[in-house]
Design a protein that fits this description.
Order of helices and strands: EHHHHHEHHHHHHEEHEEHHHH
CATH class of the largest domain: Mainly Alpha
Shape: elongated
Mean pLDDT: 88
Low-confidence stretches: none
Number of helices: 16
Number of strands: 6
Helix content: 40-55%
CATH architecture of the largest domain: Orthogonal Bundle
């Protein structure tokens, strides 16, 4: 539906437990092929890394398992031998507390993916223009090698180095029988992404609402994407017409009455524009209820037997405390049946009915019905 950049300036989605199998396979093949078997620490990898570092006279290998790397991503401390010792302890504790799949999910959600992109979900949208569930073998391999050298994901340089690392991983998958020769050829033929994709803005006002009310959580919406796009097109057409009369804001909320679910949410038109309050979510904005209250009034009176559908109500010029209600047609019928007065949304019979029923009683009825914007006493509304 859309996305908002995090408060720290990073493109990051909330952590998820749903990680694609292709990505998990690529990640373990590249980073930690014994991940499914070790308890968070691999002594052989640590020993091999120590020997390599001694021979090279500098740090050329860390020997960290995926679990240890997950700990490092969460702690974000400078790499030292003492920090490595802490990572070993915490990695063991992490293995005792979480499943292997959960640990991979934590890693995938926090791994740096180049630039200000963090996590597999944000990277899939940013680099490939679709969700992580649709990643191909080539795309999965690309994202698996990126956290090792996130600077490789630069659209103006390093492309050859990134391509080499990706294809080397794909070759490893071919050699161990994970992918077929055909899959390998198709994957290596896929080009690297050329330019970053814009993240979708299908329901930006709803995304903003959820971002503010439920930060850092995954929310499954009931929005129908196809219907949302259709409704957006309809509003854009009407906006072109209404804007000639200086009506610059439109909104639409479509509800599936059988399921009681919101299936389209358009808080305003032209979200990308800063003028005319287009980023204001009109759906949430308080405004006059107007004639929407009439059915509630008639319902309350019918329930109590204070009004009958065929009862005659006066439709004549009246004055109530200096207020003279008028009908939209500016005409009066003298007397009209209650059901007709409601069907025609006549103002005078409604004012008469409200005075008869009582403002405080109707105020309480609306409160119980769920109207949340009544934040003043009943006598304020008159």
């Amino acid at each position: 539906l859309g996305a908002r950049i995090a408060s720290d300036g990073q493109w990051r989605f909330p952590p998820t437990d749903s990680i694609p199998d292709k990505y998990k396979t690529c990640l373990m093949a590249f980073e930690d092929r014994y991940f499914r078997y070790h308890p968070g620490v691999n002594p052989l990898s640590l020993g091999r890394a120590m020997v390599q570092n001694i021979k090279a006279g500098r740090v050329v290998s860390g020997g960290s398992t995926l679990t240890m790397q997950t700990v490092r991503l969460m702690r974000k401390n400078k790499r030292t031998y003492f920090e490595k010792f802490i990572e070993i302890i915490l990695a063991t504790r992490l293995e005792l507390s979480y499943s292997k799949n959960r640990i991979i999910a934590l890693y995938a959600s926090h791994a740096p993916m180049g630039g200000n992109v963090v996590g597999i979900d944000a990277a899939a949208w940013r680099y490939f223009g679709h969700g992580a569930r649709s990643l191909s073998w080539a795309e999965s391999a690309t994202l698996a090698v990126l956290p090792n050298s996130p600077s490789l994901m630069h659209f103006g340089r390093n492309r050859d180095a990134l391509l080499t690392k990706r294809n080397r991983l794909l070759q490893k998958l071919l050699d161990n029988g994970t992918i077929s020769e055909t899959d390998y050829r198709l994957a290596t033929a896929e080009p690297l992404p050329e330019n970053p994709h814009s993240l979708p803005q299908i329901a930006p006002h709803l995304v903003t609402r959820l971002y503010l009310s439920q930060p850092g959580t995954h929310v499954q919406s009931t929005i129908d994407k196809s219907l949302q796009l259709q409704a957006d097109n309809v509003l854009e057409r009407w906006n072109t017409e209404f804007s000639q009369n200086h009506i610059l804001n439109l909104a639409a909320l479509i509800v599936d009455l059988e399921k009681n679910e919101v299936i389209s949410y358009i808080g305003n038109v032209n979200f990308g524009k800063q003028q005319s309050g287009n980023q204001v979510d009109i759906i949430q904005s308080s405004r006059s209820t107007g004639s929407i209250l009439k059915p509630f009034l008639y319902c309350a009176m019918l329930q109590e037997g204070a009004l009958l559908p065929g009862e005659l109500l006066p439709d004549i010029p009246i004055n109530v405390g200096g207020f003279s209600p008028k009908n939209f047609s500016l005409q009066y019928d003298g007397a009209v049946h209650a059901n007709e007065a409601l069907a025609r949304s006549l103002n005078v019979p409604s004012v008469v009915s409200l005075r008869r029923y009582g403002v405080p009683k109707f105020y309480d009825f609306l409160k119980k019905a769920g109207l949340t914007t009544l934040n003043r006493p009943a006598d304020y509304y008159g």
